[in-house]
Amino acid sequence: MRRLLSWLHLWVGLTAGIAFAVLGLSGSVLVFHEDLLRWHHPQLEGHALRVDGQVTSSILAREEPQGLRSIQFPDPSMPVVVGFYEDGRRGYFAPEDGGLLLMRGTDDDFLLWLQDLHIHFLAGEAGEQVVGIVGWISLGLLLTGLYLWWPKRGMLKLSLRWFTQPPARRWLSWHRSTGVVLLPLLLLLTLTGVGMVYHAGARGLLTGLFGGGGIPAAPVHAADAPLDWPAVLARAQSGLPGARLTRTAAPAPGEGVVSFRARMPGEWHVNGRSTVHVDLAGREVLLAHDATAQAAGARMTEAIYPLHIGAVGGPLPRWLTALAGLVPMFLLVTGFLFWRRKPSRK
Known about the structure:
- This protein has helices at 2-30, 33-40, 53-63, 110-120, 124-149, 156-159, 167-181, 183-197, 199-210, 229-239, 296-302, 304-308, 315-341, and strands at residues 68-72, 81-85, 90-93, 100-104, 244-248, 257-263, 274-279, 285-289.
- By secondary structure, it is an alpha+beta fold.
- The chain has two domains: 2-32 and 114-211 and 308-345; 51-95 and 216-293, no CATH class.
């Protein structure tokens, strides 16, 4: 059994491990996506963190015919209004007057291209399913690697030692000890990545075990007044006191509800999973959902994304996430070098 697992671990690792390494390397860069973007485009820096109803109305009215589907309000990591378009482009607008600062697309922006590679392998929904399959295979590699490393009683210290000679022992010891020491981080990132691909299944499992449900759907309300963005924003903010509004979109023709994403204090998700829905005139909060008041299973589900990107607990988790993303490539290279040097090949 051990010999079969060792053979599978080697050959699956040398093949599927390439895709695992690509996901890891791209993820390490994307941890610093917004930092790199602000550094490369200094016009995105130095703006006041403000949400203005007139500016919001202006951006949506001007850009919706161009395919704009939603906007993200300024926050400390990106102090401008970000627009998300149906074709994958992103627009960046000054929060003071709505002026266009930058337009990006996967065909002209390396970071967006890298994000598409990381999430979809550049192949849309089908590519995302491939990413999920690679995630499951990677979990198998990590767990079989742990089993193959597991030392006998009294041999733990020796099993974690890095050797320099002979070459086959060097590469094997570097491969095993690095994989084991960083295994908790690798398991966390791989499990959360799989959970993001199969989000509905992950949510069903966690809420079934620990309680909770889905996010409430937007209520149905007649469009009985003109859309008043300043009043709507003010009313939405009052619907979740203490929350920061993060995203919204103009209602579809005939709809009488404006919906917002919001982040309550204590939420880990960078954009929040709380929601608030307001009528067009800003007279009434139709529904408010505080994500921090959910049962444990729902909160665990909504922690998957922030844990995956290292957004929980300050700068250190981000750097640890970036470090962990380099490990699959290290394991691939050391595994290959061990295979090249192992005595049975000579």
